[in-house]
Specification:
The chain has about 600 residues and is an alpha+beta fold. The chain has 19 helices and 27 strands. The chain binds 2-acetamido-2-deoxy-beta-D-glucopyranose (3 copies) and manganese (II) ion (MN).
Length: about 600
Amino acid sequence: MRRNLKTLLKYILLSSVTVVFTVLTYRIFKSKDFTRDRNSLGLARSIGIEPLAPREVILVDNEKIDWHDYEQIEKELKRLGRGEHGKPEFLSEQEKHDYDSLYKVNGFNAALSDKIAIDRSVPDIRHKGCRAKKYLKNLPTVSVIVPFHNEHWTTLLRTAVSVVKRSPPHLLKEVILVDDFSSKAFSKKPLDDYLAANLTKVRAIHLPERSGLIRARLAGARAATADVLVFLDSHTEANVNWLPPLLEPIAQDYKTCVCPFIDVIQYETFEYRAQDEGARGAFDWEFFYKRLPLLPEDLKHPTEPFKSPVMAGGLFAISAKFFWELGGYDEGLDIWGGEQYELSFKIWQCGGQMYDAPCSRVGHIYRKFAPFPNPGKGDFVGRNYKRVAEVWMDEYAQYLYMRRPQYKNLDPGDLTQQRAIRDQLHCKPFKWFMENVAFDLPLKYPPVEPGDFGFGEIRNLGAPELCVDSLFRERDQAVAVAPCLSDAGRKGKGEQNFTLSWHKDLRVKGKSLCFDVSDPNDKADVTLYPCHGSKGNQYWKYDVEKQWFLHGGNPRCLDCDPGQKRLYVRACDESSKTQKWRFENVNLTMIADWESVGIK
Ligand SMILES: *[C@@H]1O[C@H](CO)[C@@H](O)[C@H](O)[C@H]1NC(C)=O
Ligand SMILES: *[C@@H]1O[C@H](CO)[C@@H](O)[C@H](O)[C@H]1NC(C)=O
Ligand SMILES: *[C@@H]1O[C@H](CO)[C@@H](O)[C@H](O)[C@H]1NC(C)=O
Ligand SMILES: [Mn+2]
């Protein structure tokens, strides 16, 4: 009896929970207020129930619409003037009086910027498929955060105007320009007045002391009131319909960070053009930012967001909720450097995900040179890197320290709070990140550099007195054969020491010049070209048995004309003696393992 009563009570409790939830979820999906949606959904999930809404309501919620602002697009197409449509522009001689002085403080052609309209048009260089793409009708609201220190007036305003003009008004809640203690006069009151009079959605906050990029971003994030934070650099231009592709993946799962494609605004001419059609962000073991190729499945869907291991750093969207769950940036990171790794590792290791959205494009001025003096704070970048490595990278930190032994003696400061975040969020180990997200990184950037497949002299068997010789030539010049330097009585000038590196390229010993063949014809020259990592033109393999040097994917054999002392490649021929070469030192173990070393 008692048992039955208990069961009955349980039943009543459960059904009332169900009723409450049905009502709640119905309201959630009907509601237009995204913040409430998300919080309630989060609540539902946090107590272990996946809310199921009535069928038709789900359909409403998944409704997708065309977000293009065709009126605006039409208007921009008709614009005439300097630098319009992102065309390259030039100053006349008379206009060049402050060219040098403005270049020096900005690192780009700021005098030209002043001649180009603040609301200029940019070309729609998105993949054609983006024009037909629809996105969820219900998208979260956005605060755009733009930290700046002494940014040039017109490039700063162009950033803000491009955002305001090319964002759906009801999604864009505000643009916050975070003035990191700029010393240019217009950065204070004139800026505030301009914004109040002309750009009501844009406001500036002025930091009372120099705080650095990372803390300036945090200050902006703290002031932001919308659902999603979008961080931009202060010399950027948002392209057509840039916002919905950034927001949809976040609307679908708030633990998501999305980066736009970053286009190039050329520092001299302000030409707007593509950098490329996308790559996955990565790093090498000195923490230089690198890129990995798209995966085959990414290439099949050129307009769909693809997963990226690390962000480039300056331009990204993330829900405020997730950003703060992750503790924002580590405030112990000083000025700049390492913050993109910190946030990226955190996002992936702590249950989130990161995408690049090909249909969202933002132009960025890559400066010609950095105009700012060194802040004189010692190796602050090294300290930042060490903080990131110590908190997030586990045993992989050693690969960084192997290359930068001086980091061992750097004091990274107090890491207690960062480690507590990692514990509290039950974040995964770095090994998980390396094996599941950046799984192809070690092929291109091995934690421990493999040795060479071989090195030394390369002697011809058809003409055994001749060796491959670069003759100290430079880029774009042909490699030849010459009398072997190691033979007695044949001393002379020459450069006959080469390495077949683990990159599967043939290098002049001690230089980063590689043997390159671009000519598909018979007897194609072998020329020297800066090494670019064994792809295509620079791929070489040594066949120990046949004593062939094979070039390229559709292999041809290294060969020579002993009379003319010419070196070239041609179709492999088992009977040719001049195609056989003796390579002075070969690591047979490594050659036997050819496929598993470096890039395949
Ligand atoms: C508003 O913009 C116009 C046109 O760019 C400019 O002339 C004016 O000075 C601006 N207003 C303020 C208060 O700065
Ligand atoms: C080529 O370089 C290697 C290592 O740097 C050196 O040991 C070797 O003696 C050199 N060989 C010749 C032929 O100079
Ligand atoms: C050959 O390569 C293997 C694997 O990288 C390495 O362990 C070994 O020391 C190398 N041998 C020589 C003689 O360099
Ligand atoms: Mn920048």
